[in-house]
Amino acid sequence: MDPGVIGLSGFAVAMVLIALRVPIGFALAGLAIICTYLFFGFRGGEEFQAVRAVYPTMALISSNVFEFLHSYPLSMVPLFIALGHVAFHAGITTEIYFAVRVWLSRIPGGLAMASVVGCGGFSAITGSSVACASAMGRICIPEMTRFKYSPSLATSTVAVGGTLGALIPPSVLFIMYGLFTEQSVNKLFLAGVIPGLLSLLGFMTVIYIWARLRPEAGPVPDETYTVKERWIATARAWPALLLFVVIIGGIYGGIFTATEAAAVCLSVAIGYGVLARKLDWDKFLQAMKDTAVQSASIFFIAVCAKMFVAFVSLTGLTQDVLGLTEYYQMPNWAILVVIVLLYLLMGMFLDPLGIMLLTLPFVIPLVEGMGLDLIWFGVVVVKLLEIGLITPPVGLNVFIISSVVEKTVPVHTIFRGVINFLAMDLFVFALIVIFPVLSLFLPNSQF
């Protein structure tokens, strides 16, 4: 059997299984093992030999799994996840929201803006969009509801704010992209800073315009704060600011690697929580349990994807795709448009991490062939995945928010509000594509 046929069939079946909602890890691992077995069984154009295929299949699968897990940079995944959970239980992440809230309380839509900034601050520590949407939704939405914000604005604000966890470092998606493409995670983190801040600023602009055009959607609360109260609230957010400075400043200044920054920040967060008496033993254990579950889930998907990547490489399917683009003489802009549309389409239905790991074996060689910077392209991919988190019909963050509000707000109401932010998301994405310097300025100027 021709290796290209095996590779193409395996990829097609994988897409069908994922579309049928088979867990992506099981789909990729199962197909990788079966198709690799068939590849070695039919090797040399001979008749299928079952026994001959067993040893090379097991050797290839086990060696790829071991090499991936025996990777030092991979240790930053559980470290950053643990940092997020510890910071949440110690109250570090929520102080950002309350600090911004008192400053923006008298601005139309101010509470919604504070929610977006709070989500951005939460993301800058946790690196998880889902965790951000879930945690901040429980804090921000009841507060906005109490002051008569429209359900659409209150819920959609946190849904889109949660997507900032994909772009603002530390980001799990950046870590996995760096590991699979062999790019510097340090540079990827720095590359996401300016696009992440642009996205945050864009969301705040949409909220301001929304509240101006429809004052009843984002009314100004009947409350005032003194200058002293505002500065006190700001001072309480210092642990979050410290952690962000350690992560970005340490990496930018060449003091820490991303892994070292994660370890240092985790130690600081635990120390602060204990000294401030906000992190007791029960909360710490809960944070570690949540970290173990989330890390295991990510590792399982990543290992299964690594097995699938090895199978794809073995069959030469990637080279066939490259040959196809050369045969049809597709210009670079056309290839890039196809890639963007592919990610937007898949983002409507699939999990971001699964999309990225499934497509990278085919997309990265195309991008390298076009001579494009892989650090810049990492930001492009993560931004597209961020958009997919709120895109109908299966916007993951929208359904997370729906579960947070216990379905008191219909899903279509949340989506209706999210649509207002999608145009801004696409505008920021266009800026990232047209002006690569927005992503590459900080990495290229790193000390």
Please describe what this structure looks like.
This protein has 22 helices and no strands. It is mainly α and 447 residues long. It folds into two domains: 1-70, no CATH class; 74-297 and 408-444, no CATH class. The longest helix has 35 residues, at 281-315.
Percent of sequence in beta strands? under 5%
Q: Stretches where pLDDT falls below 50 for ≥5 residues?
A: none
Oligomer: single chain
Radius of gyration: 23 Å
In round numbers, the mean pLDDT is 86
Shape category: globular
- DSSP strand count: 0
* Total domain count: 2
Total of DSSP H or I helical runs spanning 4+ residues = 22
Structural class: mainly alpha
Helical percent range? over 70%
Characterize this entry briefly.
Keywords: Cell inner membrane, Cell membrane, Membrane, Transmembrane, Transmembrane helix, Transport. The chain has two domains: 1-70, no CATH class; 74-297 and 408-444, no CATH class.
